[in-house]
Specification:
By secondary structure, this protein is an alpha/beta fold. It contains 10 helices and 13 strands. It has 2 domains: about 210 residues, P-loop containing nucleotide triphosphate hydrolases (Rossmann fold, 3-Layer(aba) Sandwich); about 55 residues, Alpha-Beta Plaits (2-Layer Sandwich). The radius of gyration is 23 Å and the shape is elongated.
Length: about 300
C-alpha cells in the first residue's frame, strides 16, 4: 500500500497541509475529497516529493526516490495540459517512454486504451480539456504502474468519457492495483470509490470506507411514520438509538428496521412506514466538511 505519515506544508504563515496521515490500499479505489482550497493538490505533490514539506510517504514501505524506475511504481496525472503543445500526442508519449526506460510499443497500447488512436498524429495544443485528460491518463499508464494518482481526471470529460473513466479505474483496481483519485463529482465518486479520504483546511477529517462514511452520516437511518410518533420516540429514548424528528415522522439511527418494528409492537404503537434511508455521498460530505470550506458562499434565500 501507499502510506503517508504526518504530511505538513506551510506557505509562509499559511498552514496548507496539517499533519496528514492516511493510506491507499491495493485492490481498491481511494477517493480524495475536500472543499476547494482544502489542500488536495498540495498533498499529492508532497506524496510524490514535488513540494518541500515535512512527513513522508512510503510506496510498499519504500520512498519513491529509492526506486530505479518510479514510473513503474506510480503513474500520475496532476495537470491535464502538461505537454509540449506542438509535439504530436504520440511524440509526447514516446519521449516519456524513452525517459522511463519503457518499450516504445507501449505508446500505441495506451493511446488505444484511452481512445486517442485516431488523433495520435495531432498536436495536443488544440485538444479539448477532455482529450487532454485522456492523454494525461495515457502518460500515467505507460509504465504499467502498480499505483495511479489522478487529480481531477474527470474535468472536461463528456458523459461517455466519465462513464469510461469510472469503469476503467474500477477494473484497474480489481487487477490488484491501487488508485488514488480526487474529484468534485461526488455522484461519480460514490459509484467508483471503495475507500475515501476527506480533508478540510489541510487537516484529515475522515479515512474510511465509502460504506462506513455513508452509514455514519446523520442523514442515514430508518424512517418511521406512525400516528403515535411521540409515544414511539419516548420508547426509543431508552435504547441506543439516535432519534431525529423529520418531516412526516422520525429518523432513527443505531437500530435496524426489525428492532424498531419489534419495539413498536411491544409498546402498541401502529406503524405506517418503516424503511431504511441511506445518505448520499453529497449529504455525508457536506455534513463532514461543514465549517471547513476555504471559500464559503452565502446561503441563497428562498
Amino acid at each position: 500500500m501507499i502510506r503517508s505519515e504526518h504530511l505538513t506544508k506551510h506557505y509562509r504563515k499559511k498552514l496548507a497541509v496539517n499533519d496528514l496521515s492516511f493510506k491507499v490500499e491495493t485492490g481498491k479505489v481511494t477517493g480524495f475529497l475536500g472543499p476547494n482550497g482544502a489542500g488536495k493538490s498540495t498533498t499529492m505533490r508532497l506524496m510524490l516529493g514535488l513540494d518541500n514539506g515535512s512527513g513522508k510517504t512510503l510506496f510498499d514501505d519504500k520512498p519513491l526516490h529509492s526506486y530505479a524506475r518510479p514510473s513503474q511504481v506510480i503513474g500520475i496525472l496532476l495537470e491535464a495540459k502538461a505537454f509540449h503543445p506542438t509535439r504530436t500526442a504520440r511524440q509526447h508519449l514516446r519521449i516519456l517512454a524513452d525517459a522511463g526506460g519503457i518499450h516504445l510499443k507501449r505508446v500505441d497500447e495506451v493511446l488505444d486504451e484511452v481512445g486517442l488512436t485516431d488523433v495520435a498524429k495531432k498536436a495536443p495544443g488544440k485538444f479539448s480539456l477532455g482529450m487532454s485528460q485522456r492523454l494525461g491518463i495515457a502518460a500515467a499508464l505507460l509504465g504499467k504502474p502498480k499505483y495511479l494518482m489522478l487529480d481531477e481526471p474527470a474535468n472536461g470529460l463528456d458523459p461517455e468519457g466519465i462513464a469510461w473513466l469510472r469503469e476503467f479505474l474500477k477494473n484497474y483496481a480489481d487487477r490488484g492495483n491501487g488508485v488514488f483519485v480526487s474529484s468534485h463529482l461526488l455522484s461519480e465518486m460514490s459509484q467508483m470509490a471503495d475507500n475515501v479520504v476527506v480533508i478540510g483546511r489541510g487537516k484529515l477529517i475522515a479515512d474510511t470506507s465509502m460504506a462506513e462514511l455513508i452509514k455514519n452520516s446523520g442523514h442515514s437511518g430508518v424512517l418511521v411514520r406512525s400516528p403515535k410518533a411521540s409515544a414511539l420516540e419516548r420508547a426509543l429514548h431508552g435504547t441506543k438509538a439516535e432519534v431525529h424528528k423529520v418531516p412526516g415522522g422520525l429518523r432513527v439511527a443505531g437500530l435496524s428496521t426489525d428492532e424498531i418494528g419489534k419495539l413498536a409492537f411491544e409498546t402498541g404503537v401502529p406503524v405506517y412506514e418503516l424503511s431504511q434511508q441511506q445518505a448520499s455521498l453529497e449529504e455525508a460530505f457536506l455534513e463532514l466538511t461543514a465549517g471547513s470550506e476555504e471559500f464559503a458562499t452565502k446561503e441563497v434565500k428562498k
